[in-house]
Amino acid sequence: MSSRPAIPESEKSERCAISCALLDPGFAVPILLQCDPSDFNDLRNRAIFEAIRDLDAEHRTPDFIALSELLESRGKTLASTLYLSETVGYTPSAYRAQEFVTTVMDRGARRRILDGVSVIAQQCHDIEMGVDAIVDTGTAMLQGQVANIAGQGASALAGAQSVLAKTHYYYSNPIEPWQTRGIDTGYRHLNIALDGWKRGNVYYLLGLEHSGKTWLALNLVMNLCAAGGTAIFFSLEQDTSADENTQKVTLWERVVLALADVPMSTYLKGRVSDDEYNRILHAGEDVSGWNLTMYDDRRTLPSMEAAVRSVARERTVDLAVIDYLGLIQQTRTYENRNQEIGGLTSNLKRFALDVDVPMLVPHQVGGKGIAARQNKRITLSDGYESGHISQDADAVIGFNREELFNPETENPNIAQLDILKDRITGGTGFTIDLYFNKRTGRMVTAHRAEAPLPDEVLDDHE
User: What topology does CATH give the domain 179-461?
Assistant: First the structure.
């Protein structure tokens, strides 16, 4: 007859770790504070740990008297005076503090993983929850537990020192205005406005239906990958399979043809010139060496997070694109669409922070409201149920094409990017012009009609 496996814990290591902190607070308390209260399975040890943590936050030494008084004031009778006094001398030296703390954190992580497995087991009994949703939720939950075992705060001293260190580095290594310390977007004016992509940030791209949002997202991915970066593209409406079926058109064809600057219609009819044929061959060879992965079967945020973490185990991910916001499937139900969008935007921010990757998310705006007003440029409030976007976004970019409302425009091939919000570098109000070849999908920097930038930047570095 088999018995149920014991819960992973080590009361001895928990007590030894606390004992080290009491014996040599200056050395061992910082090591102990790597832990989270949930790492301690024994409630007495957890109570003592929390008391040590709170005394340290008040810059008080966690000696026997201070701890006893604090525990008594909290009514922590489990952590009795006798237990505390015995714990002080539980280990003869503090030099093994890191070893004990590592064991405590390991056992705590294992228990949390078991808790996650328990949740997954319960979901398996919910017949209204799809299998894909269970797998996606469970994968993201378990990976999150392993990747982020315990959160750590930062003191004012550590924070200030990090800023001073960066200041010295920036001062000693200046860069040009169009260069970036972030991740290069491939468009120098966008770099000037946003200082490149920033890790953990979410960038929303607002545009009309069929205006070219996907093309811009693809061009940004192409720019990054051509420079040696790693990108992931989640397409929720187009095929990304590596399929040689001539009855299908995939996103890979759009990428290769755009890089080769060859129209899709010419390619599909086999009417390419010798020069275009060679350009496609060279573009295909270039793309084959890129660190780019595209998915069309990941429709929930947990499944996308699992994919990003899988790629990140092999190499650093520099940009993830989700095309587009309105097609992301939720794993729970909401009372209305506004709440659903709010749930997505808040979860997207958590997602970006957890995986430490810049996220670019196109979002469709309503054309009727824009057509009815004199100013046809996209504003921060134009997106469908987009109030949460303006609140949760790190940056919002408006994608404008004048020809959609004015066929007689003198610049039918110009697409303008308005920085509608930028909470990091203050790029709000910048406008960037791109030349958009609608036949091939390629977008390159163009001279701008209006540019709130110093003239010398435009004249010397265009």
Answer: Rossmann fold (3.40.50)
